[in-house]
Amino acid sequence: xxxxxxxxxxxxxxxxxxxxxxxxxxxxxxxxxxxxxxxxxxxxxxxxxxxxxxxxxxxxxxxxxxxxxxxxxxxxxxxxxxxxxxxxxxxxxxxxxxxxxxxxxxxxxxxxxxxxxxxxxxxxxxxxxxxxxxxxxxxxxxxxxxxxxxxxxxxxxxxxxxxxxxxxxxxxxxxxxxxxxxxxxxxxxxxxxxxxxxxxxxxxxxxxxxxxxxxxxxxxxxxxxxxxxxxx
Amino acid sequence: xxxxxxxxxxxxxxxxxxxxxxxxxxxxxxxxxxxxxxxxxxxxxxxxxxxxxxxxxxxxxxxxxxxxxxxxxxxxxxxxxxxxxxxxxxxxxxxxxxxxxxxxxxxxxxxxxxxxxxxxxxxxxxxxxxxxxxxxxxxxxxxxxxxxxxxxxxxxxxxxxxxxxxxxxxxxxxxxxxxxxxxxxxxxxxxxxxxxxxxxxxxxxxxxxxxxxxxxxxxxxxxxxxxxxxxx
Amino acid sequence: xxxxxxxxxxxxxxxxxxxxxxxxxxxxxxxxxxxxxxxxxxxxxxxxxxxxxxxxxxxxxxxxxxxxxxxxxxxxxxxxxxxxxxxxxxxxxxxxxxxxxxxxxxxxxxxxxxxxxxxxxxxxxxxxxxxxxxxxxxxxxxxxxxxxxxxxxxxxxxxxxxxxxxxxxxxxxxxxxxxxxxxxxxxxxxxxxxxxxxxxxxxxxxxxxxxxxxxxxxxxxxxxxxxxxxxx
Amino acid sequence: xxxxxxxxxxxxxxxxxxxxxxxxxxxxxxxxxxxxxxxxxxxxxxxxxxxxxxxxxxxxxxxxxxxxxxxxxxxxxxxxxxxxxxxxxxxxxxxxxxxxxxxxxxxxxxxxxxxxxxxxxxxxxxxxxxxxxxxxxxxxxxxxxxxxxxxxxxxxxxxxxxxxxxxxxxxxxxxxxxxxxxxxxxxxxxxxxxxxxxxxxxxxxxxxxxxxxxxxxxxxxxxxxxxxxxxx
Amino acid sequence: xxxxxxxxxxxxxxxxxxxxxxxxxxxxxxxxxxxxxxxxxxxxxxxxxxxxxxxxxxxxxxxxxxxxxxxxxxxxxxxxxxxxxxxxxxxxxxxxxxxxxxxxxxxxxxxxxxxxxxxxxxxxxxxxxxxxxxxxxxxxxxxxxxxxxxxxxxxxxxxxxxxxxxxxxxxxxxxxxxxxxxxxxxxxxxxxxxxxxxxxxxxxxxxxxxxxxxxxxxxxxxxxxxxxxxxx
Amino acid sequence: xxxxxxxxxxxxxxxxxxxxxxxxxxxxxxxxxxxxxxxxxxxxxxxxxxxxxxxxxxxxxxxxxxxxxxxxxxxxxxxxxxxxxxxxxxxxxxxxxxxxxxxxxxxxxxxxxxxxxxxxxxxxxxxxxxxxxxxxxxxxxxxxxxxxxxxxxxxxxxxxxxxxxxxxxxxxxxxxxxxxxxxxxxxxxxxxxxxxxxxxxxxxxxxxxxxxxxxxxxxxxxxxxxxxxxxx
Lengths: 232, 232, 232, 232, 232, 232
Hints:
6 copies of one chain form a homohexamer. Chain A is of the alpha/beta class and 232 residues long. Chain A has helices at 10-24, 45-58, 78-91, 107-122, 166-177, 180-183, 188-203; strands at residues 2-5, 30-33, 62-65, 95-99, 141-145, 159-162, 208-213, 217-219, 227-228. Chains in contact: A-B, A-D, A-E, A-F, B-C, B-D, B-E, C-D, C-E, C-F, D-F, E-F.
């Protein structure tokens, strides 16, 4: 599994619980962070990189930094999409997580979401000259995460991932708090736990994270759909 | 699994392939048909009832008829929702299939969809006086089917069910053709196979049926999401 | 051409210009008015019926009254849809005009829009017992009109009908003013002319009326599409 | 008529039937192709250019290549919009076809769609310094085509163009098959014929292509609207 | 201010904080409850009525019961809208609160929302025969409340009402807990406080309630708009 | 209050009445115009700048020109957003007006709207290196204006600002007519007055301007909401 983040703490805050659960089940997770958070109000870039490394380790994930235009300077350029497609061909993930391309949020977030959308297509094409060295790769799923409620895509039905196990929540909180430069300044941990609690209350579990599949899910039988929230 | 249809052929035409596949895997299916199709241009009611019984048998399903207001006369009445809730409490299904409540289709279709939405709620409530004899029941999933493309809900992302196995398609076609009073009059079989082929082409399989979950799907891990259509 | 109105003045105010133009070109127009406006603040029912007759005559149209539940009492009943389907089979129109089924407007308006949607389907079905005396009829087009801007359907792209010829506007205004019980109480004429002027300014003509086709338009060549508003 | 395509086969696959019908009726068609398809998995650029020329000839159209950023490298730049506006001023078309600007598709497609939107505006403005040599030009209609169903604009009602005549379908298929580098690799022809058959079934004809007008259609009378799909 | 509720606890759970704040500021509040909650799983009707009376008293509001079709039996009937219009003419409120007419919720909720929409129109019309005894009344604002997140109208931008003052929250919680038959069975209080906290976090305050104006707000200057959530 | 315009006349035509009313009430207004209108069909850049200065003076506003890419050449670049964020930090407004980011309009308009969205975020961030000299600033409200009806955001409910006072309308018209190079060529004044009249008719006043808040409005009591259009 591969997760993209525009800033050092985006992945952890928005889907750290899901990732903790995946790695706890023995599945590999890799983070690609596209800036060092240098435009933020709090935290020097070196500190933020260190926080990201520590948070990834807590979540059982590896992390790399792929610099594009810098924090708060990201633009939607074909060259960036090709760079990210190259990462996809190297890491060859099944599931990819990226910020939603919904525009009502931090400009780096939706632009990275758009770039990842493009990158997952380019990674499949055989003739892109910058990528000729690497074998094409088609991912299994692109799932969007929403850093805030305003960033939730309004055209895509969410899927809710149950992350209720106490040790998963504890790991998630630890990973968020590893970003001490941010959590000491504002109540980001409470925001995300409140969102996860509300999704959990809707799903009839303790905590849940909403993710938004870029494409329709394909199942081989109805039993694969598990249950919905209707039973409540 | 319980499927509701407004007319004797609705279930077979729209999700016969999915049902054939479920019963083939050993899961039970029951149909509730809410009219005898007596307003249609072709086929006497007795013939249509017989066709429905034969089609259900071909699909490995049982069928019952629950008369509400009659073909083309259906209204959204609380009494009907309570009647259908009573059926839900008796059959006690996990998954429920119903026509989408999207209004741009045969008026009986969307009204039945709306009634089923209400019924799955009422089936859970302990105090509905007409239902006091039966134990409350919460279903696992309500999935809408769309008799035509115009009836696909525009607010819900579809899930695609792969129904490519040749014997499944053969069973589905047989069940559709069991409605000879209809298939001899218009090319309904071709319409549905063309839709399923187009969904299949999008999903990278031979044939697929699109269903629309009324509520967010809840998963306990990302691996439950299977794959999307993005890999194509 | 057949136009449905919930109250004696609805057709004239919302699409009187279009109708004047059609009848001026020699095409027949018939109005079906489903109440006598008896719940309005101004005008006795007899006066309103007389005004409607006079307005229809000015527009070159015939008019009949089909009482359903009465002004401000309309409900969506299967029996009403069948009644209107019977009218459709008798009049056998190509184009049908009806108020939009968008709910944010006078409750009679959207309910009549919904009933007409159902009626145009029922008029085609061979087996509806109440309609067995009359031959099925399929219309060519169902076009919605919007009594107010809030009533414009947000899922349907409008088509703009150019009604700029001064004699057409004059006839339209005369037909609106024939409803003196209403126009003496509020500035309805100005509202509708302002809307038509704004649509006209958008279309590069003097005045235009927006209509909303219930179904996709089918053309046999691109030249049928005329021009869009893009050239401005 | 002028059609824009991002890659050598886009126009033929998505609206070849419509174009065959227009040229068959004696109307001129010109294609502007904005890359040589060099990033695709199959087919060398020279081969693809040759295929495009042959396909255009089969459709009775002329074709030119306007290189922008190259296949899979297209960006939304003001300079590109001005380049395309220059083409519009030179060719001076009435109807313009372009890929939809809906983002859920190949990144070159929606970006070209967006650029063409901008270009049709710029072509009308008198003071754009790069365009001062040419006379401003306002087109009659901008119609979007959708390479896949996901690319269909969800805010615009489609119009369906009946392309059922067997010789038109034969010409369309021949033009698609002229792109042998692509059709030998995947079943693109079947995909497009299946889509056209489904649209045709909805419209009551053999085959139809859905197009999406960028702006409201303006008609001078209701008779111009032809018929809708409601009659079926 | 007049608030409508379908069941004895709807108003308190969804907008009790807002009401506490209004009555605390000296503005009158009246509740109209349209069933005795007799279909619920928990609580006898008499108990629920008593709970509603106590909760209203805690909120500083008066309450009356207007029986329509009974809990879980509500239908959209013209007669009900006229009954509620009669209440509006008697109480003559400025602001009206009602459940949203969004269909994805308890069937009584959205139907009551729809009925109130109709009632506020009918209350203005001079000629409705059942209402002739009372003077027409136009309200100032109709605001929808959403009992659950799924019930939030997706076409209306929310306004957030800051209810952060501790004594307001305390009163709200007390009013919710007055419905002990419900709160002892499920964690409804936590659900609503979590929603209010999340809205508050979005608005930069402690707690907020989202309401959805049925119609555009009219201001006499920009200074009336206060602040948005953008500053955060 | 700070208003951004892409061309010398955009602010005046779209929200000149609102601004006249604000300055009349003693609140300061500043305009930032991002081109000299040099791509337009009519008016030399110097003339247009002079017209803008005169129009601003008539409205009681100050004006500055911030050149970005030039008229009809605007691109969405991070550098531009940072430039505009610098302006926000210098001017430190409460309310900000900008063109809507809806794409169906002049390409400069929606791009400037998008840039302003980004700029209001960047203005708050402490670490943006180009902005280190200036203190972060959070605005109170971002309100979009729509140069044409097609540019109205379809996801945001409008608020209507009553601008009915005759002296306000007179000042607005004077400010529009100060752009004689444009008003002598097309009927822009009529277009805007017709729009304002239609909004006014909907709001029950003489004239109104629709604005679209980028974020939910936050109120401290229901009495802040004033009245809606429902009372009509």
